[in-house]
Amino acid sequence: MLEMNDIRIGTLVKLNDQPYICLWSDFMRTAQRKPVRRTKLKNLITGNVLEQTFKPGDKVEEADVERAKASFLYADDRQVFFMDSQNYDQLALDREPIQPRLDFLKAGQEYTVVTFEGRPITLELPKKVELKVTATAEGVRGDTAQGSVMKEATVETGYTLKVPLFIKQGDAIRINTETGDYVERA
Fold first, then answer.
1. Shared domain check, 111 and 146
2. What is the DSSP track for 27-62?
3. What tens digit of pLDDT does each residue of 64-102 get?
4. Do 119 and 133 lie in a common domain?
């Protein structure tokens, strides 16, 4: 059991039989009142954010989550499938909660699947992924006169982003998975 002072950013807690991660935590003490810890907790299953205040003496259960490396296999209309790298079990995640991250999944690559009470609930991506450019316009000398030094490019997963003019079809690039922006040529 965790007490009020144990809840910090990144702490995993269980409220109403749901796993939450602490996104923000602030300890408040005023002159005439008891101290409290205000938090913002994100539900790992639904993605909803909850503001919760804990008082001295409040106890909260620590969420029992496990992380396992798994290779991305494929996705259908409702689910995304992975293969556990340890025991070769197939894991299925609902497509809806991880939809924004699908643009960065490449078949055969390893990712971290988070399970709660034996059920896969979410996917953790690395900060950067390396993907190959499948389509982009050629950069023409003099295109920078207007001040636009970026052009559209499509990578092997179908994701479209802005890249510098020197990037060509077939180049491998690194993409920030949090923002979806070009980082560097690989």
1. no
2. EE--SSS--EEEEEEEETTT--EEEEEE-TT-EEEE
3. 888 889 999 999 999 999 999 888 889 998 888 788 888
4. no
Sheet holding 182-185, edge to edge: 160-164, 150-155, 128-136, 172-176, 182-185
The residue segments making up the domain with residue 163 are 128-185
Pull the structure tokens for residue 105.
Answer: 């999944």
Number of structural domains found in the chain:
3
Q: State which amino acid sits at residue 122.
A: T
- Find the CATH number of the domain harbouring 51: 2.30.30.30
- Could you tell me the pTM of the whole model? 0.72
Better-predicted residue by pLDDT, 148 or 90? 90
Cα distances from 107 to residues 9, 33, 74, 75, 156, in angstroms, run 32, 55, 7, 10, 10
Same domain membership, residue 109 and residue 138: no
